[in-house]
Each structure stands twice: as C-alpha cells, then as structure tokens.
C-alpha cells in the first residue's frame, strides 16, 4: 500500500543568507525531505540596508554554508509579498507549515503569512533567540 508523504511548507531564511539560523534551516530541511514532501519559502529581503548592522546579509566565499536553492518570495518590508507568499504556500497545499521566528522585526511578515495559510494546515513555529542576544531593539 502506498502511503502519501506528509506535505510540509517551510517558511524561513535559507541560503544565500548567512548565519546560524539559515544553516540550521538547511539541515532541518534536508532531514525532513527524507520522509516528506517539503518545499522551502525563503526571503527576498531580510533587513533593509538601513537597519542591517553588519557588512552583508549574504554568504561570502569564506562561509561554509551549503548552496541551497529555494524560491525567494517573502520580503520583510513589502506587505504585498506577505500575501503573495501565503498564496504560494496555499497553492502547495501543505499538511504542515513550519515557520521560524527569531526577531520581533519579522513578526508582521510572518504573522500575516501564517494567518493566511489554510486553516487545515498545522502551524508549527520554531523560536530562535527567545531571549534576544543583540544589544539593539528589534
């Protein structure tokens, strides 16, 4: 008997963005795709340049992050992309939506998308940095 694989939509930050959360998500995605049908939904923009404290948001030649191709669809600062992202996730028709939360700045984008995903999808959030380690707000 053929069992249908669970369908998972994974909304978060992935390569080409740098950092531990993107690397964590890539590894979790790889583990989940062994037993499920999974689709990643990545950011086009995490932070506007004005708000970004470092030199770049993206991996560089010295970064060990694996090249991981994902659709880049969600902009943290473009409300139209929130709706577009929710529609794309709904088109995929997941059984489960996994989203990552790591900073209040992303709350509006993630909140709108998660709220617009079909109610028959189980919504799971992974909370990174529940207690912020940055010295700045947001």
Give a verbal description of the structure:
The structure is a single chain. The protein is α/β, with parallel strands linked by helices and 138 residues long. The protein has one domain. Helices cover 27% and strands 23% of the residues. The protein is built from three helices and five strands; from the N terminus they run E-H-E-E-H-E-H-E. A five-stranded parallel β-sheet has the order 3-2-1-4-5, covered by helices on one side. Strand 4, helix 3 (107-116) and strand 5 form a beta-alpha-beta unit. The model has no long low-confidence stretch (mean pLDDT 87).
Given as residue ranges, the uncertain stretches (5+ residues, pLDDT < 50) are none
Strand order of the largest sheet: 3-2-1-4-5
- Put simply, the count of helices is 3
User: What distance lies between the first and last C-alpha atoms, to the nearest angstrom?
Assistant: 50 Å
Gross morphology is: globular
Number of domain units: 1
Short structural description:
This protein has helices at residues 20-32, 79-92, 107-116, and strands at 6-11, 36-45, 72-75, 96-101, 122-127. By secondary structure, the protein is an alpha/beta fold.
